[in-house]
Amino acid sequence: MKKRKVINVEHLSKKFHKETALKDLNFSVHEGEIIGFLGPSGSGKTTTIKILTGQLPQTSGKASVLGKPTEQIDEEIYEQVGIVTDNSGLYERLTVYRNLTVFAKLLDVEKQRVDFLLKKVGLYEDKDKLASKLSKGMKQRLILARAMLHEPKVLFLDEPTSGLDPVNSEAIHDLLLELKKIGTAIFLTTHNMEEAAKLCDRVALLNDGLIVENDSPKALTLKFNKNKQYQVLLKNEIEHTLPHTKETIEKISKWMASDELLTIHSCEPTLEKVFLEVTGRELV
Questions:
Q1: Where is the ABC transporter domain (predicted)?
Q2: For the chain, which has fewer Cβ within 10 Å, the N-terminal or C-terminal residue?
Q3: pTM given for the model
Q4: Which of 266, 256, 267, 264 is nearest to 232 (CA)?
Q5: Rounded distance, CA 264 to CA 249, Å?
Q6: Is 161:17 a contact under the CB 8 Å cutoff?
């Protein structure tokens, strides 16, 4: 069954005075899909989110979310959208639990969902703490929980695991994948290429306001695997890096037949190396 398109962008551009932040962006996102917008600081990622969430008007082009032009986004659309950005704040004088129950009431969400999410993001034991007393990482997890409270149809996440330790990042990843299963479309910006490779169905590599590549992480790494090699580890702990040749195939076949082969890996580049090759810039 064909999945519904929930974000659509055509020839989108944004100028700030004489500076062009976005140049002719074209992409779409379907329900149950995670798209990663990847690029260095200043490449246009946050500007794109602000346009898509109605916080900023575009200079030219068209963009729509859940079928409505971004210039006309209203309360009905916001009730179906979750947003986590640098500007997302908390009620500092309320407890962790109250921060969520206030929004649960507004969004007509059952309180059991609050407990479920607090456990998922590792904050259940801290539910009676004031938000002002939380660390930066804990605040980030609470903001994420709030954005996911109503199981939104579209979720915008700007660097959602920044500042989180690996255990909590993993818990957030699991939760995002659960949301994907129920049909939530997720628009994710991140500097973490491993995170993007794990979560995203597609990644758009952004550089100087332009999408320079847009495909699945696997397709991109295979596309830029120009120097095909294999990393081989034998049982005697000797490692070999071998080119993609007829002789290599014969060697590997021989090692396999004699049960000498322990591991074999293809050596396609990482997403970060692909980005560096495409843009000539580090992802910082």
A1: 7-233
A2: N
A3: 0.84
A4: 264
A5: 12
A6: no
CB proximity list for 10: less than 8 A, separation 6 or greater:
26, 61, 62, 63
Please name which of 242, 37, 3, 18 lies closest in space to residue 160, comparing C-alpha atoms. Answer: 37
Contact 196, 47 (CB under 8 A): no
Question: Tens place of pLDDT for every residue, the chain, 284 residues?
Answer: 678 999 999 999 999 988 899 999 999 999 999 999 988 777 888 899 999 999 999 999 999 999 999 999 888 898 899 998 766 789 999 999 999 999 999 888 998 999 999 998 889 999 999 999 998 888 888 998 999 999 899 999 988 887 778 888 888 888 899 899 999 999 999 888 889 999 999 999 988 889 999 999 999 998 988 888 888 898 888 898 888 888 888 888 999 999 988 899 887 888 888 888 887 765 55
Residue 45: both structure tokens together: 């990622």
Question: DSSP letter at 107?
Answer: T
Fold of 5-217: Rossmann fold (3.40.50)
**Contact residues for 36 (Cβ-Cβ < 8 A; gap 6+):** 188, 189, 190, 196, 199, 200, 202, 203, 204
Residue 64's SS3 state is: strand
Q: How far lies 280's CA from each of 4, 208, 221, in Å? A: 36, 12, 16
Structural domain spans, the chain: 5-217, 226-267
DSSP-derived pairing of the beta strands 5-16 and 81-84: unpaired
